[in-house]
Amino acid sequence: MMQTKLLSIIIPTYNMEPYLRHCLDSLIIDKGMDELEVFVINDGSKDRSSKIAREYQDKYPNTFYVIDKVNGNYGSCINRGLKEATGKYIKVLDADDCFNARALQDVIQRLMNIDTDVILTNYVIVRNEKTESFFLNYADGQVVNIDSDVVEYFSMHNVIYKRSLLKNMDYIQTEGISYTDQEWIFYPMLKADSAVFFNLSLYRYTLGREGQTMDWGTLCRNIGMIENIVMQMLIRLTDYKNDISVCRRKYVENVLQVQIELIYRVELLSKRKELCNIEILNKIDKMIFSYNLDFYKKFSNQAMYMVSYVKYFRKGIIFPNRFRHLLLLLQKLENSLKR
């Protein structure tokens, strides 16, 4: 583990016995495996996850490394993996997902001639044995300057980072909660200089598994975690807003917008028995308004739709301050249509 590798892969793992073997098998490649190191971070699993991972460590001792630790949730696994990694580049792979092995070989080969802070690839969603590809709108090999070019919104499935970028900014992911993959696509992009696009579909993202963090029921139960992450992002972006370029700001605002819309949708449209957390929504609303008025206005159309839905289908809900104004607008619109 003393030798510096080209690519480090961090695999946060908690009770992933049914999926882990498929995940690790996808990393066994014919060419370039000597440039690869894989850290399976076992987050206090109660099943056979650690034992399965150690089979790979025993068979491929120069590539696979197993680290057993007490449970600290997703971010703690990323942080531990970053401490151990020696690779020039870092990629996160969830234990219930996998890579396309051929694409992984190609990525390793191309990384030998790349020095950008960020590498972006395509990814594939796998749901009930059906696949759907998600492509970024760049030419293969295109280099993007993050300060002067518009960067498309991407997910953790798309991105590989240079390890020195994360090290120099003292990157630490929030521990003890889920959904911190949003931090992975937000904070490094405040510091990265350039990105290059590989037209390869590397990551295969599995959806539809019961208990996944993006399952609607799980989201409703844990929406407070996302709210906490978004509020911290808003604080950081407010601090940076006068020091970053227009293009960089557009990208990080897009990351925030996706998560804020998710919060509004879950809090206002979920069929939970309890009412929405008005205090938190008002707090986030004020933070958005304080950050930037134009950014604040982006949410008006979606908020209007949600107010309309809730007004007719969820009687008795108390609207957050901002949505009360929208409700009045909606009522004026209805009255004008009745005349």
From TrEMBL:
Signal peptide: none annotated. InterPro entries: Glyco_trans_2-like, Nucleotide-diphossugar_trans. Keywords: Glycosyltransferase, Transferase. The keyword Cell membrane does not apply. Residues 8-166 form the Glycosyltransferase 2-like domain. GO terms for molecular function: hexosyltransferase activity. This is Glycosyltransferase family 2 protein. It comes from Phocaeicola vulgatus.
